[in-house]
Amino acid sequence: MNPVEKYPHAADVSFDGGDLDCGGGLLLLIRRHIDPMARGGLLEIHSTDASVEGDLPAWCRLTGNELMSWTREGSRRSYLVCKGALSERIRHRTQEAPRIASGSNTHIVSVSIPDKLPSRAPAPAIEPLSVMGIGSWPRPRWMLQAVHEHLEGRISESDFQITADDAVRLTLEAQLRAGVDVITDGEQRRDSYASFVGSRLDNCQLIPLTDLTAMVDDREKFETELRALDVPASEVRHPVVYGPLGRSRPLAVHEFDFLRSLTSKPVKIALPGPYLLTRTMWLDCLTDRPYQTREDLARDVVRVLREELHFLLAAGVAMVQFDEPVLTEVVFTGEKTQRSFMCGALSEKKSPDQELAFAAELLNAVVAGLPTDRTAIHICRGNWTRDEAAALHGDFRPLLGFLNSVNVGTCFLELCTPRAGEMEVLRELPDDRRIGMGVVNQKHERIETLDEIDAKIRTSVALFGKERVLLTPDCGFATFADNPVASAKVAEDKLRQMVQARDRFRERS
What we know:
Layout: E1 13-16, H1 26-34, E2 42-47, H2 52-63, E3 66-73, E4 76-82, H3 141-151, H4 157-178, E5 202-208, H5 219-226, E6 237-246, H6 253-260, E7 268-272, H7 274-281, H8 294-315, E8 319-323, H9 326-333, H10 352-367, E9 375-379, H11 400-405, E10 410-413, E11 434-440, H12 450-464, E12 469-473, H13 488-508
Parallel strand pairs: 1-2, 7-8, 8-9, 9-10, 10-11, 11-12
Antiparallel strand pairs: 2-4, 3-4, 5-6
Helix pairs in contact: 3-4, 4-13, 7-8, 8-10, 12-13
């Protein structure tokens, strides 16, 4: 496409990207401006970096946007991009003056842990054989729409939270009807169980995976890997760190506060674990990074998670669960050079032993000095598809050393599917460690019979004793908002069946 002297259409929004290239932050600025626009909206991008001339057309093709035209005057270029196709444009916003933004995309936020963190508040006890979900719950269609509109800046924070409150009420009512003992809010406010932190942490931004193509060194290889992604790249948002991480607002305390206003039952809050976040946020493929090493990044990840944990426990959360499913990717794929996109893990990794030691060090730093009975870890083998063959296989034997070394009180483990091997392997766990047993498979629509669940309860009690056993599905029912593995009805029916099987076991024991 050759440059033109004048655009045939007026831009709705304009910003100056300065000398930023696509790998150095320009795409983050583009995403901030184009997301809130209606489809058919026109964005003008000013730039003095020559490489954008080649990179921007490729980004437009990959993301389904349209490069309308571009101009050049000396070293200064401008590009007119249509969000989606021009045919989707309904009207020009001629009444609105173009908005100009600066070229800097890094806003240094200095946030440190307060000298005096809040003291821990008491919380309802979680009794043996308690039934609970892992975390996520299928979102209603109107909630999914709100999630996308909120991510793209088309609805306000207050309107989004009001909508999410309604979705949480429905999730709570379903769990109460099923009779569960410990409540979650279904992660209704999150686009996924892990990436949501990118929209809440300072100097972190959620962008579609497709945007990363113009930010990597080997684009052809990266595009090949995207085609093997576990869920469509255009539907998955990935956190990109562009400055020092800070926590100027809570990650999940607000979720608990609302849920606590509705129920007095014990509440469990799930957070992505520090190893998962470090692996997710450390994009070694990027040409420009704010942290020199992933260890530098990990220190700030630990800091923000530890601060969040303090405030959650102080608010009265009964249990905080750290999700670390990518650990099975570590042990079951070894040192293969092929990247795995499970859980958005795009970064490099070392040997399994080194990665497990690193993961244990990070989690222990987050929970140090805090009550183990109120902290937990969850590990599964992937939860994006109902196809069992697509997920990882292998028992927990390679993870026993890690599980023995982390200072949490409960391990929530995927154990119902044959892919997870025999639960007898877990005999080696410490006697003071509770086991959250996966006793139903959330991937299957078939509701397990009372006898099937009862058999798993009896086996687990025989192995670990009643006092150490909690009962859950293998994983959440909707890990990714746009890609739930179960319907809300199936989720409720499975939890109800678990409660009835547990009650029958108690009556017969």
